[in-house]
Amino acid sequence: MSLLGSHISSAGGLRRAIGRAEALGCEAMQIFTRNPLQWRGKNLTDAELDAFRRALLGSSITRVISHASYLINMAAEDSVRRMSVDAAICEIERCHQLGIDSVVIHPGSSKGGSRRDALSRLVESLDEILDRTRDTTVSVLLETMAGQGGTLGSSVDEIASVLDRQGWDRRLGICADLCHLFGAGLDIRTEGGYSRLVSSLAKHVGLERIGCWHMSDNKGTLGSSADRHAHIGEGEIGAVPFGMLVSDERFADIPAILETPKDGIGDEGNLALLRKLRGRP
Ligand SMILES: [Zn+2]
Ligand SMILES: [Zn+2]
Known about the structure:
By secondary structure, the protein is α/β, with parallel strands linked by helices. The chain is built from 9 helices and 10 strands. The protein has a single domain, classed as Divalent-metal-dependent TIM barrel enzymes (TIM Barrel).
């Protein structure tokens, strides 16, 4: 019985995302708090922060997730790592001010270099990020990736090894992306496949570390490393694991965020399908 939601546009001001999500009947939402393709975000004024916080409190949205900038590579070798650490810290502080409790970040990439070294740099970056934002309660959720190129975090095991090496900070968790896990080779198409995924999450990271699910089907085939988002049930995965997930009592308060295309049936159609699969309006 996850909290159903979607990635919502914050065009025209962050506060406007809340109205858009409510209009769709979302219980949770994910937003970019700034342009995700730029290093620096515009500072928010006190009035903007206040307006967002008040609108959120007065809304039916239970949980908000921020998705960090796509430029961040915590495993980079050079000045990019420094910029990434600083950008992640900025994002966490911004979430803290906005009353957002979690930020999803891509683990990073080895960019063709040694994967082992890249993973060490990622752990080092996480240490610094968590340490320098100790006075906040914002969680950092590492997203599972489809495994293109030298992308880190393409399996539950690899994310678990990062959490383990970091020392299991209370604020560190995982965003399990079903589209990416399938692209990376995890067969979740059947009830058994879904159960194996949840068992593996329970064994390696602990279910309480799952802070968010990303929901989209994949036009790419199993293990192709493809990350081609499709409407639920219209890709190679099919609707089965999505239905299992949204009706799974173990994830009652965890946001299940759609990242499906905005065309065709759009958010409305995908949310309607998930509600039907969940068996309650
Ligand atoms: Zn992402
Ligand atoms: Zn994706």
